[in-house]
Structures are given as structure tokens and as C-alpha cells.
Design brief:
This protein is an alpha/beta fold. It contains 13 helices and 20 strands. The strands form 4 sheets. Strands 7, 8, 9, 10, 11, 14, 15, 16 and 18 form a 9-stranded mixed beta sheet that branches. A 6-stranded mixed beta sheet has the order 1-6-5-2-4-3. Helix 11 (about 395-410) packs across helix 13 (about 485-495).
Length: about 500
């Protein structure tokens, strides 16, 4: 029986930026920490007595239902001291409160509101509004596989401001970033009985179909065998669902800056293979392709924004399964570029498929710089926790650009060292490289990948921790988070100026 997976991409609220409020729509206003006046449309004041009664502080993420309907004000949301992160958190809290109330009204048989208008402070900056839009878009995200009727959602948010023309570009850009993040979440959350390599490849084609200038090639296992993609074929050999290789190309007519290659790990399910994982937590391995999903969504977002930088996205896709045809510890695999790897742990499959794609990038794509992104090592979860990505780089400028791109997009990165004394650990006695040597595995994995980068400036993003969440915080909800998507787009955008 067919599993009722939600249609992709998930619907997000629509935004209208206008100077004219609409009568009949419920109204929300914002409060800064320590503010006393709470002004609605026409300067209506909710009053200090009401603020004291509900304990309003204005801190980010605080949302109250207004006691008066005289000015049409129904919600008050705190934005704290007004930082970008606080505005994002405020937007997420507001949409959750709105949709929670909508669900309650639906269950009680009352009229359900589907739209909201938000009166913006006159001094609101475009960066703050963009973060608010991001929070509203992603804070109410949900991916539920069910045959039950869907719960009410916020369909549209009307942003009322005295300067709509100034804010509209920031809102449109933020909406594009949100759509990219949501697409990554959709791909990551899809269950693996549906999400095989062919499904992920076809999803890339579907997402790119409406964007002129974004080209997608999908290669099957016969093509990869002819080309010598030994790593991808080895990892995918244990599954009856054959691997795929996706190449996305964005070539603007008058490109500026470097040609950027983005490479993402696309393991649609990871049992660990013969080096099988423990049962606890294995169900989460449906998100082991979030690096590849981030690359797909980043290319789609770059095209949607029309960024004038040439970008190529490469996603090797396979399912790492257990069977009589699975690859084994002790096997020697030949990669696309002719280098060989001694397999020591079949659960270190991500670096095997990335090695092929990176070698292909060096030989065929010939970019000026390369960034790979992968849920690669549990070591990064232990080292940096679940909200910060690990960053390795051979180039200080790329590393700094990624950190700054992360700050602009609300994603945290910490640069890790490529310790020289650990490089020799990836040297094999019987092949060129040893796949999984002893030592700090996040660093040794980076050193292994480094061997497939040629002389191209390169960065490696390990997102094993922040790619998934088990609880709600800020604009993040449990499940795939979409982490790294916005950073990759911001990185590309940094070369556009």
C-alpha cells in the first residue's frame, strides 16, 4: 500500500508587504524588551494594566493573546532587544501560537483564521523583517505522514509598514531562503521506504523544473560503472535499489566570481552495512542524505534568486544496506579518479561516495573552489553538540566566508583543525588510502576527503549534529532541520558582490 507522503515542497505562508491594513484580519503587534507603549493600528494602546496582568516582558519568543479587540489586536509578540536572531525567534513563536489557536478553534467548531496581519514598527530594518519572515515560514513547518485531515495552517501574513517598497526585496529574499530550507527538510524527513536513490534524484529534477537556467542530469548505475564510480557502486551494492548521481548546473549569462562546486552526501538510508549500526537510533538514518538535500536546495535557491555566480552541485546517492552483495571490510575500491581505498568500516560510507564525486569535480567540472557537506561523523556531534556544524578548510578566505555566511543565515560553524600529524593515518599499506583509520574520526575523515580535492581550495562541512533536531527551538522543529542550505546560498552570494 502506498505511503501517503506529503506533497513536496511543503506549503509555506505567503507574504504581502503593504502600507494599508485590511479590515477584518486579526492583527499582531510587536514589543521590544522594556517597551511600555504597545501600539496597534491607528495608535491604539493596549495599556500598561494589560501588559502587567499578562506579565509581558517583550523578550524574544514571548507571545500573548491580547485582552482587547477594540483595535483589532489579537496577538503581541516579543522581539527582545531587536537582534536578527531574536526577530527570527519571534516570528517562529508567533506562527506557532497562531496555529495552535487555529487548531483549538477547529476542534471546537469555531471559525478558523487562516491569515494574519502584522503591524511593523516604523524603525524596523530590512534585516530584522527578513529574519521575522524566516521565522514565520519555518517555525510552523511540519511533515506528517498520515491519512488524517491536515491541521489548520497560516496561509498568509500581511506585513503593514510605512515603507513597503524598501522592505519588499528583503521579504522576497527571505522567503526564497525559507523555501530552500523547507525543501531540505522535506527531503530529509521523507521515510526511506519511499525515499530511495531514484526518488531523491527525481525530486531534484522536480524542484529545478520551474527555474530557467538550472540544468539537472541524473546518471544511473550503468553510467557510473562505465565512468568508474567505484565508491558509490560499492556502497550501493548491498541494496536492491540502485544508486544515482545527480549533477545540477547553474550557469548565469554573465557570471562573476569563482566557479563554485558544492558536493553533498546522499545516503538515503544507512544501516551501516556489514559493520552494522546498533538498533537504537538507526531509524534516524533516513536523514543521512541531508548534505545532498542541502546542495540540491541550495542550487534551486541560487537559481530562484538569480545569483550571477556559476555553481555546480554534485550529489552521489546510494542506500547502504546489508545483503550478500554488500561491500565488505577489507575490500579495495577504485574511485573515479583512479585512486584506491582500503575499506575498514562499511559504516564510513559517506566518504566513499563523496570521494567519487569530488574526483569527478576536479577532473570534469574544474571549479575554482569546492565545498562538500555531509552528515559524516558522530565525532562532530560529541565535539560541537547538535546546533553547530564542523568546518574544515584548506583556505582561510573560504573558511571565513563560510563562518560569516552562517552568521548571516542563522547557522553556527566552528572551524576544526586539519592536524598534520593525523594525515599519515589515512595512508594504507595495500591501497592508496585507508578509509577509516583510528584517531579523532572527524579530523581523519576530513583528511581522507582532502586526498580527492587536487589543488582546488576546499572546505568540508560536517553537519552530523545540526542536520537533525529532537526538539523545538527558534525556527527549528523536530526532524530534519535544513541546516547548511542557507549557508551555502549565502556563501555563493558573497561572491556576487
Amino acid at each position: 500500500m502506498r505511503t501517503p507522503v506529503p506533497s513536496l515542497p511543503s506549503p509555506l505562508p505567503e507574504f504581502e508587504v503593504t502600507a494599508a491594513p485590511r479590515r477584518g484580519l486579526p492583527v499582531a503587534v510587536l514589543a521590544h524588551a522594556g517597551d511600555s507603549p504597545l501600539l496597534g493600528p491607528g495608535g491604539a494602546d493596549l495599556g500598561a494594566d494589560w501588559a502587567a496582568a499578562v506579565g509581558l516582558t517583550g523578550k524574544a519568543g514571548e507571545v500573548h493573546t491580547a485582552a482587547t479587540q477594540g483595535a483589532g489586536i489579537r496577538w503581541v509578540a516579543g522581539v527582545g532587544e531587536g537582534s536578527a536572531a531574536e526577530w527570527r525567534k519571534a516570528g517562529a513563536a508567533l506562527v506557532r501560537a497562531f496555529e495552535s489557536r487555529a487548531a483549538t478553534d477547529a476542534d471546537a467548531g469555531r471559525r478558523v483564521a487562516r491569515s494574519l496581519q502584522l503591524t511593523l514598527p516604523p524603525d524596523a530594518e530590512s534585516e530584522q523583517i527578513a529574519e521575522l519572515v524566516l521565522g514565520v515560514s519555518l517555525g510552523g513547518y511540519r511533515f506528517t505522514v498520515t491519512g488524517k485531515p491536515a491541521k489548520p495552517r497560516l496561509r498568509s501574513l500581511r506585513l503593514v509598514t510605512s515603507s513597503p517598497d524598501e522592505l519588499r526585496p528583503a521579504v522576497e529574499r527571505a522567503a526564497a531562503f525559507a523555501a530552500g530550507t523547507a525543501a531540505t527538510r522535506d527531503m530529509g524527513n521523507a521515510p526511506s521506504n519511499v525515499k530511495d536513490p531514484a526518488w531523491l534524484a527525481s525530486t531534484a529534477v522536480k524542484l529545478a523544473a520551474q527555474l530557467p537556467g538550472l540544468h539537472v542530469d541524473v546518471h544511473d548505475e550503468q553510467w557510473m560503472a562505465a565512468q568508474g564510480f567505484g565508491g558509490v557502486l560499492a556502497v550501493g551494492a548491498g541494496s536492491v535499489r540502485p544508486p544515482r548521481f545527480v549533477e545540477l548546473s547553474w550557469r548565469p549569462p554573465r557570471p562573476v566570481g569563482p566557479h563554485v562546486a558544492l558536493v553533498g552526501k546522499g545516503i538515503t538510508f544507512d544501516t551501516g552495512g556489514i559493520s552494522i549500526k546498533p538498533a537504537d537510533g538507526m531509524h534516524l538514518m533516513r536523514t543521512d542524505m541531508c548534505g545532498g538535500a542541502a546542495v540540491i536546495a541550495a542550487l534551486v535557491t541560487v537559481a530562484r534568486l538569480g545569483l550571477p555566480v556559476r555553481v555546480t552541485g554534485l550529489v552521489p546517492i546510494a542506500e547502504n544496506h546489508v545483503s550478500g552483495s554488500a561491500y565488505r571490510p577489507g575490500d579495495i575500491v577504485t574511485h573515479f579518479d583512479g585512486q584506491t581505498t582500503e575499506v575498514t568500516n562499511t559504516d564510513a560510507e559517506g566518504r566513499m561516495v563523496l570521494a567519487d564525486a569530488m574526483g569527478y569535480a576536479v577532473s570534469r567540472v574544474k571549479p575554482d573552489l569546492m565545498v562538500d557537506v555531509a552528515t559524516l561523523t558522530g565525532a562532530m556531534k560529541i565535539t560541537l553538540g547538535l546546533r553547530t556544524g564542523g568546518l574544515f578548510a584548506t583556505d582561510d578566505d573560504i573558511a571565513d566566508r563560510i563562518v560569516q555566511a552562517g552568521k548571516r543565515s542563522g547557522e553556527a560553524w566552528w572551524r576544526m583543525p586539519l592536524l598534520p600529524e593525523l594525515e599519515e593515518g589515512v595512508v594504507s599499506d595495500i591501497a592508496d588510502w585507508r578509509q577509516c583509520p583510528p584517531g579523532p574520526s572527524g579530523i581523519t575523515a576530513a583528511w581522507f576527503l582532502r586526498q580527492f580535492t587536487g589543488d582546488i581550495p576546499w572546505a568540508h562541512l560536517d553537519i552530523a549534529g545540526p542536520a537533525r533536531a529532537d526538539k523545538t527551538y527558534d525556527e527549528v522543529v523536530p526532524g530534519a532541520t535544513g541546516f547548511a542550505t542557507r549557508t551555502l546560498v549565502e556563501l555563493v552570494a558573497s561572491y556576487a558582490s
